[in-house]
Amino acid sequence: MASTRVQVESPVLRTISDFKAKMTGGGARPNLFEVVLQFPLSAPTDTDTLQKSRFLVKAAALPASNITPIDVPFRGRTLKIAGDRTFDTWTITVLNDTDFAIRSAMENWMNTMNRMEDATGTQDPAEYQSDAYVYQLDRDGSTLRTYRFHDVFPTNISTIELNYDTIDTIQEFTVEMQVQWWEAIKGIGPNAGGQDIF
């Protein structure tokens, strides 16, 4: 039996005007975002520190989407089928102000899970896990898309290097957060698109 070949449409000449028409809103910008941290019941913090996260978290990431394939051998070939979903560690970079507000809050959060001196801590995940949000913003300040990270908790706060030779620099540090799962929510701005992912 002869195989049927699907006729593929030949590519047509594209113009810069065609490209511009498809670049909705002029493109999403990686420096237009806002991170909102929430702290758990076991490590509450003040409103000022919560507000600071909106300004001092200088770098974050929109999450990857991972499904591990399952390879099933069959007569010299391998059938790939969808396996389990996994969620990557979420890392943020924070500018350190002189009151160490966010760093201190993160250190306290980790200490409630496992205390420095005696290795005791909160056992109930509901008490040491919380949610975090990343808002992708448009150039008019509206929200294009919101990513909600569910039940996160920090597992690493990076060192802050000190050096007499370092000038014209503000301290910064990273925090690695474990993520149970995330969801994406379409924004309400005029250029917002995509669909909700739960």
Overall pLDDT, averaged?
A: 93
Number of domains: 1
Shape: extended
CATH T-level fold name: Pnp Oxidase, Chain A
SS strand fraction: 25-35%
Characterization of this structure:
This protein is an alpha+beta fold and 198 residues long. The chain has one domain (28-63, 84-186): Pnp Oxidase, Chain A, CATH 2.30.110. It is built from four helices and nine strands. The strands form two sheets. Strands 1, 2, 5, 6, 7, 8 and 9 form a seven-stranded antiparallel β-sheet that branches. It has a two-stranded antiparallel sheet with strand order 3-4. The longest helix has 13 residues, at 101-113. It starts with 15 loop residues before the first helix and ends in a 12-residue tail after the last strand.
Outline the secondary-structure elements:
Blueprint: H1 16-22, E1 33-37, H2 47-56, E2 57-59, E3 66-74, E4 77-86, E5 90-95, H3 101-113, H4 125-128, E6 130-137, E7 143-157, E8 172-178, E9 181-186
Antiparallel strand pairs: 1-6, 2-5, 3-4, 5-8, 6-7, 7-8, 7-9
Task: Give a quick precis of the structure.
With 198 residues, the protein is an alpha+beta fold. The protein contains four helices and nine strands; from the N terminus they run αβαββββααββββ. It has one domain (28-63, 84-186): Pnp Oxidase, Chain A (Roll), CATH 2.30.110.
Key features?
seven-stranded antiparallel β-sheet, Pnp Oxidase, Chain A, two-stranded antiparallel ribbon, 198 residues, extended, alpha+beta, 4 helices
